[in-house]
Structure formats: C-alpha cells, structure tokens
Amino acid sequence: MSAVPMIDAQRLSLMLNELRLPTIKHIWGDFAAQADKEGWPASRFLAALAEHELAERDRRRIERHLAEAHLPAGKTLDCFAFDAVPMISKAQVMALCAGDGWLEQGANLILFGPPGGGKTHLAAAIGLALVERGWRVLFTRTSDLVQHLQVARRELALESAMTKLDKYHLLVLDDFAYISRDQAETSVLFELISVRYERRSLLITANQPFGEWNRVFPDPAMTLAAVDRLVHHATIFEMNVESYRRRTAQARRTGAGRPATYTTPKVLETIRDNQNENDDLASDNQNRH
Ligand code: ADP
Ligand code: MG
C-alpha cells in the first residue's frame, strides 16, 4: 500500500504501454500489494513480473500461430483411433509431433491411402501438435495453394509468395494428387517442392501412390524429379485401410470390417532405387515409357 502512492500509477501504465509489456501493466498492482504485504525482495518481485509477461507472450504467440495455420477443426491426436491403422506406430507419430530432427532438416512426411482412411485427420492432428510445441504450420488443400501461387506468378510475385511460405516450418499439402493437369499449375508446385527441398518440410496427403503422379505432373521427367526430392528425406505412411466412416458404419451394423485392398505399386520401389543411383532423368524415363 505504501509504495503505490509514491509513484505515478498512470505514468507507469503509459511507460509499460510504450515498452509493450501489457501483462505487467495488468498485474503489477496486485503483485506489488502482495510483495509489500509478504516482504518479497525487490528481485523476486521483478522476476515474477517478467515470468508472467513471457508466459503470456508465449501463449499469445501460439494462439496466433494456431489461427494462421488454418487447421480443420476438431481433428486431434486424442480423437484419432490408432488401432484403426495398425500399420502406423503411435510412438513414431508422437516422435514426429515433437518436430525436432525432421523439421530442422526440412524432411518430409507423406501419407498415402484411399479416401476416408484418416490421412487428413492425422495430418491436421500432427500439425496441431507441432503448433502447440511452438512450430509454425500452414494447412492447405493443394489445389488452393496452387491457385494462390498461380495468381502470384501472373502478378510477377511468385518468388515473394514462396518466400512468405518460408516462415512455416511445415506446409501441409492436403490431397496432393487432386490438382488439375495444367502445365502452369504443376510447374508452380514443382518450384515449391524445389524451393523447400532440404530447407523446409512438407506434409503431403495423397490418394494416389507415386505411380499415378504422372497425372499430376504431365511431364514424366518433372514427376520423377519432384518425387525424387520429396522422398530423399521422408517418412512415408501407407494407410491402406478401408474408409473409417464406412467401417464404423459397417461395424455398427455387422460388428466387422473387410480387409484392406489398397496397395502401392512397384513403381515406389523403382523410384526409391533410382534415387540412389542419380541416373540421368531423361534416359531413365525413356526406359520406363
Ligand atoms: P482421408 O483424408 O484419408 O480421406 P479423413 O481424415 O478425412 O480421410 O477421414 C474421414 C473421416 O473419418 C473424418 O471425419 C475423420 O475424422 C475420421 N477418421 C478417419 N480415420 C480415423 C481414425 N483412425 N480415428 C478417428 N477418426 C478417423
Ligand atoms: Mg482427406
């Protein structure tokens, strides 16, 4: 009580505004009263204020990152049934959610599987966990991002649009194989993959295995070069399960599901082998077509 009248509280508020310390501005009165009452040393009082300002700053930053991430609502790890995708290790997913290691190296994560298998859910849940740990994430449908980059290209601002995406440690490209076959579109996608290669991570979900990506990139050399960069440092999850919705509906009716029928064609192994050899892309593609 005694310290407060000796300072100009209004002037202190202005100074704290100027210093951009809104939390301290908000709490210093109560803390000062408590410190006076309990006889805190001045250093303890100052440290308590600083700690609160920092904690609140972290909270606000994560809130901002969550808003900018555009994650689909309600898709969390807590409500993801790992037993529905027995080929995926929960421990491995949890390790990826820490972000260290792979995001620092700009490594990628690729989720394959038929529609309804939980790719979007898992991608969003991993994105959310990463944001909560302080990483920056942008979740987007691939076709929306391609459209955005195409507009930027027309306005001669493609480079700055790509640079703006650099602030995201992880870019989630949902439904990668759904984009239309247009040369201009796919080349912006190819440029994005090249620009982020070994620097910034991508999380890609796709219904179509690599063997079908020639429908995404009309030029087979471009497909191979894109896949080559994507898989060079990548974790690949193959979620070869039947639609979760259909299975849960079916289980309600009959109590059982059908076995998965989806497989990744041999081309994946072919691409993995080629990647080590670093063959001439053109001759390689001639051999394959
Ligand atoms: P995909 O992107 O592979 O087509 P989604 O992630 O959109 O599949 O999943 C379809 C629906 O089923 C969503 O509502 C999703 O939340 C739910 N779902 C899928 N897999 C699981 C799972 N393992 N646990 C809980 N919900 C799931
Ligand atoms: Mg999906």
TrEMBL record:
SUPFAM superfamilies assigned: P-loop containing nucleoside triphosphate hydrolases
Domain of life of the native organism: Bacteria
GO molecular function: ATP binding
GO annotation terms (biological process): DNA replication
Keywords assigned by UniProt, alphabetized: ATP-binding, Nucleotide-binding
Any single Pfam family the record assigns to this protein: IstB_IS21
Annotated AAA+ ATPase domain residues: 105-237
Biased composition (Low complexity): 251-265
Region (Disordered): 250-289
InterPro entries: AAA+_ATPase, DNAC/IstB-like, IstB, IstB_ATP-bd, P-loop_NTPase
Keyword tRNA-binding among record annotations: no
Family: Belongs to the IS21/IS1162 putative ATP-binding protein family.
Record's protein name: AAA family ATPase
Native source organism of the sequence: Croceicoccus marinus
